[in-house]
Amino acid sequence: MNKIHPPPRYLLGSCLLFWGVMSGRPWIGLLAALIVEARYWLRLRWDFDDTGYARAWQLATLLIVVTVVLLLIEGSRYTVLPDLLSWIPVLIIPVQFVQSYGLRDDIPLSTISYFARRNRLRSERLGLPMETRSFHFGNVTFFLCLLAASVDKNVDARFFIPGLLVLCAWRIIAMRRCRARVLLPVLVLAGMGGFVGERGIRRLEDILVRGGSEGDGKFDPTFHGTMIGSTGDVSLSPEIQWRLRLVRGTAPQLIRTATFNSFVGTSWQARRSPDLDFENLENRLVGEDLFYQTTRSKAQATPTSIADIVSMTPSLPAYTLRGSVSVGDPLPLPGDVACVSGFQVERIEGNTFGTIRVVPKDPVLNGTVFWRGGTQPDLPPLLREDLRVPIGDSEALRVLVAEIGLSSEDKMPVTLAKLRTWFQQNFQYSKHLTIRRREGGDKVTSPMVRFLTTVRSGHCEYFATGAILLLRQAGIPTRYSTGFAVAEYDTSRKEFIIRGTHGHAWCRVWDGSKWLDFDPTPPNWLTTDFPKTSVWQRMDDALTRLREDFFLWRTQPANQLIINMIIGTIGVGLAGFVMVRLWRSRSVISHDNTGTMQFLPSEKTPLHELEPMIRRMIGPRPAGEPYAAWIIRATHEYADRPLVTEAIDLHQRIRFDPHETGPGARKRLDELAHVLRGSL
Amino acid sequence: MTPQETARQLEAAVSSVVRGQTEVVRRVLACMVSGGHILLEDYPGTGKTTLAKAIAKAIGGARFKRVQFTPDLLPSDILGISVLDPRTQEFRFHPGPVFTDILLADEINRASPRTQSALLEAMGERQATIDGTRYDLDGLFFVIATQNPVEFRGTYPLPEAQMDRFAMQCALGYVSAAEEAEILADHADKAPVDRLESVAEREDIIALMEAVKAIRFRDELRHYAVALVGATRGHPQVQLAASPRASLALMKVSQAMALFRGEEFVTPEVIQLIAPDVIAHRMVLAPEARYSGTSARQIVADLLETIPVPF
Fold it and tell me: Looking at the predicted structure, is the pLDDT value of residue A588 above 50?
């Protein structure tokens, strides 16, 4: 069998260290490297049988499963694979341990393969001859370390690629096939593979995270790309994003995540003067209750002081909000939020458009939102931006405004009612988009104008944008808001469920004293937008709930202590169990006087000096293998047989019959050993 | 003739008759010159008797006796009996087959334990006590016992004490097809064992036995042999471990083996080569090991792999 050589001394340790440095866990890497490499300094060994190897594999599998579960609980499910891969060098340490400290050279294949194990049992039962296949696990560890180093998010390509090349070159040189012809292409391939792998996996992660849960990815408070001008179906994730439970009063219909004021091309952006950037709201907290008063008094015609809000809150409508968030995610809040309370955050900040974003302490947030206090987090409109329409569209918009009869002179409810009626009578809601960004012919009209004049079918982004453009044309400052519609009520749990599919866009209209939420989309959008809940979805919902509730339970200080104790007990128990088992299996060997008794050569021969070199070539000599047989094994490919035979003969003579051997023999063996050393 | 030459010629002569069994022939001869006895466990027709005969034939002046063990065989059938001479009115001793140089005890496990144990003293002490009189079995006394591994009905397993008296236990096994064809060719006119000329005298063999004692055996190898045998004691799968008699046999047989290999000193390889033959048959396995299919030879092989060997 053409066997692959085991990795040379210190390569695995270096690999683990490389992984540790690349993934930002240098101490763990160092510890793992020490565990693996200490075999060269320690005389401690275990005589693992097949069961021992299988146990190590089972332990590694258990660690992998536990890690997957923890990753699923902690983070996004789409990055489980890369996250798991980045931890894998530590998780496979049990198997590498039995490889390093076991007395066998290789691990039987039946250790890790269920089928190989079954096959072997069958052969044993039937008395069939069987071929035991085995492999050196060091090679697996080597490969997995490099893979793990490449998938980590923090990896720096400037150090990663050279490190990868050095380790690969080391590996190849150790295989004694160090020819430039072979070495160069392999290294080039390794470098390219590493680069592509590293980039590819990160890209894949991006796709998974972005594509899997729309809008749940990286939140950008200044930019919102719409689907205006692209064709196809609008698809949103049916996963639960937030859960909302009423405390007092009714639920808001729309909860906003962000507001934008500038329509450029087909996207909405938040343009503002530099002094109106995100501002930390923590200075507005009152008492120790962590009341984040989100209202901006400047926005009020009759300013409400913080003290007023605090005194008012007990009577305001309120709901609790619960959901998973990552750093910088916006909180979905009603347009007239009064204050939020009880959210465990590192930082909470808001901008002048009323977008509130958080840096959470834990992956799951839970807190109470008070609203309808007559306050708003948005500042009054910036007239230049909030009335602007695209120049190319203004002509068509003027015609439409005249047709509908919109005017800034009318009372606001009248204007909005007119617009809503116009949309309901002439437009259709559809998630199947047909408007292209550029239509053929020389007359170029924008997708929005085509939506408003000819196509008249689209989804909420079209309706909201269309209404904004018309209102602005009519001289009414209006903004674009994104967020969720509160529509699904779970009667059994008495809570509202906000899914990705509830994602919505609407207008925020300035009526001269405050901002109003105005939703021009025909109300039937909710009925057409809902896919049927599948069994899978229900299961997914249950898991999400379980995970979130567990998290919140976990973050309470009393429970944290319990969890730490449980995890600590299990961890220490498992580690202790493994240690005790290892210690016992070691003591069995010493009980037989075999593990502790070492026959150190009383008579050293020049051939003994070849030992470190041969050990590097074919691995350490098994305790029971005579030195001569080991040398023969190492030199079986070596052409000059008589030389080896003579050397071994002299070695045996000097070693086991010293008194009858003259000094000439030692001299001759010295020469032979020198020749052997040169040619091996 | 030097002892080495005697050994070489003897081996060549016996191997010319027993085809394809060079390695076993060497072991059997080594066992003989080390002063031990051998138990051959194999199927009928594999050449056990021929081997014994060939050894006897190759040694000029060596007496050869064969006893077919049956359930009704009596101790006196082996040792001999004193019979009243009516003329002299005295008891006269008629020596049994045990008074010989090479004794082939065929199918030894078919005789009753009482008869089997009649051999005990002879094998262990090289003497026989009959009717209170002690008779020495001087010179060459070599027992080749055989038993059939598949027979169970009407057999009496050898007692552990008797097993311990055998220095080695070997199996001949079937030869290859080519070698079997050669055996047929050899038997074309006359059985090859009948053609065999003696290559050594009885005295040469006794000299050879003396020469074996001169084969050098280093102290650390002695420790190794002791460690090997000692490891069977306290082994979880072994109920009855190997005795110091096993270490003694290990040393003597490995010395003889080294001589037959043309070496003047013992190397660890030789000890490892014969250790399963010398140690395994003396052990009784624990029931759980027996039922899990482990064999005594397997345990010895495992010990050889794990016990550090002098290097």
Answer: no
Question: In order of start, what are the domains of chain B with their CATH numbers?
Answer: 1-188 (3.40.50.300), 211-311 (1.10.8.80)
Q: Which two tokens stand for residue A85?
A: 């891969």
Alpha carbon of A628: minimum distance to chain B alpha carbons (Å): 8
CB A363 within 8 A of CB A75: yes
pLDDT band at B154 (very low <50, low <70, confident <90, very high): confident
Q: Give me the residue label for tokens 């016990």.
A: B307
Using DSSP's 3-state secondary structure scheme, residue B104 falls into strand
Within a domain: A132: yes
Residues A363 and A445 in one domain: yes
- How confident is the model at residue A589, as a pLDDT? 39
User: How crowded is the C-beta side of A373, counted as CA atoms within 13 Å?
Assistant: 31
For the cut 90, the answer to whether the pLDDT of residue B11 exceeds it is yes
In this structure, the answer to whether residues A203 and A236 fall within a common structural domain is no
Instruction: Tell whether A1 is covered by a domain.
Output: no
Same domain, A448 and A488: yes
DSSP assignment letter at A229 = T
Tokens 């064709």 locate to A231
ipTM value: 0.87
- Say how far apart CA A137 and CA A104 lie, in whole Å: 12
- Is B142 within 8 Å of chain A by CB? no
Put simply, the chain B residues between 231 and 250 with a CB less than 8 A from any chain A CB are 231, 234-236
- Å between A552 CA and nearest CA of chain B: 53
Number of domains in chain A: 3
Contact between A335 and A508 under an 8 Å Cβ cutoff? The reply is: yes
Bridge-based pairing of strands A337-341 and A329-330 is: unpaired
**pLDDT one-digit tens code per residue, A45-60:** 777 777 788 888 988 9
Which structural domain range is residue A51 located in? 11-212
Instruction: Say which of B264, B305, B307 has its CB closest to residue A657.
Output: B264
Interval A23-49: pLDDT, tens: 888 899 999 999 988 887 776 777 777
Residue A617 has pLDDT above 60, yes or no: yes
- Between strands A134-135 and A107-108, the pairing is antiparallel
**Res A596: pLDDT:** 39
Give CA separation, B20 vs A235, B168, B190, B286, in Å: 81, 20, 19, 36
The token pair at A7 is 């990795």
Q: Do A255 and A348 share a domain, yes or no?
A: yes
Residues paired with A135 in a beta bridge: A107
pLDDT single digits (tens) A75-125? 666 677 878 888 899 999 999 998 888 877 778 777 777 787 788 778 777
C-alpha A188/C-alpha A168 separation (Å) is 10
